[in-house]
Amino acid sequence: MSKKTPPTAQKPDTILVHAGRHPEDFHGFVNPPVVHASTVLFPDTAHMAPGAQKYNYARRGNPTTDALEEALMALEGAAGVKLATSGLNAVSLACLSCLKTGDHFLVADTVYGPTRHFCDTVLPRYGITVEYYRPDLGGAIRSLFRPNTAAVFTEAPGSLTFEMQDIPAIAAAAKETGAFVLMDNTWATPLYFKPIAHGVDLSIQAGTKYIVGHSDVTIGTIAASARALPGLLELHGAMGVHIAPDDVYLALRGLRTMGIRLERHQQTTLAIADWLAQHPKIARIRYPAWKDDPGHAIWARDFSGASGLFGFDFTPNVSKAEASAFLDALRLFGLGYSWGGFESLAIPVKLAGVRSAGTPLPEGESVRLNIGLEDPADLIEDLSRGFAAIGN
Asked: Which Gene3D superfamilies match (predicted)?
């Protein structure tokens, strides 16, 4: 079967379907094979020389991992992509690939909790100084740079608070000093925001969420700019990171439908946010795509869509016991810490105390919702059940 040359310019949904697939290499089958192997054989000693043969050991890649990395390179507009065992593993690898002893590391004060734990417990062991900054600084972050500032970590929107960051302004400030910019882009995925095109060097995703989309695999991805790629490749290889081929295949399968799933997630989430905003026991909706969110202007400027994860704050008169009763009354929303899957989830949130920089957060009770693929009317009915449990 002869190879077909793909068009040079493709829309994102087309990339999702076609990138990383080479049926002509596998007897015409539309999906790449799942390669279960550790050992690779060579026809002779000459082919055992470095670079003489495409594959030499499974830890360094196989046709299955190549397919996912190639697809994500096209989607991210990246110079290269490497896979990780989870989103947190992707965060740690990305950080370590551009930091060394003596460096100063600026981290958004709204990052994912486990990312913060990594920064607080692991990086100081290696002589790396971590400083948290207000997420609303934008270009003013330049005032925090030191001669040894090596990197800036961003996340938009922020974990739990859903505060937006001006990524282009932060990237421009970092470029003046040569510092690397990292971004956790799990919420928007590169379908709705392309970090590298906005000046980010390392774009990180917990592929567990929207890439996989079916709550059955943990995997992480790191997409690198040209200048960040050498450090990522060196660190990734030295750490011996390898992802099970079955997990990679499931991520590939999920990737093919990510576009259509995200459209549904966003549509339903906006409808539910509008409904919740009218309830007398809701003080605030935390969703940048929602018209009254404080970060809506930045989101509308830089992002082309939104996902199904958001939060809301109860009014101050709702107690912790009542917030728990609300959650316990839900039947369609499961109580679980992940998100991005087909099923809706809910968790209790206490925002006060989660930050060390910036303005104080409300002392009251909050909830984070992952909106799945259920019918919006049924989800609203379920939320009504929760409100009934605490008295409408």
From this structure: Aspartate Aminotransferase, domain 1, Type I PLP-dependent aspartate aminotransferase-like (Major domain)
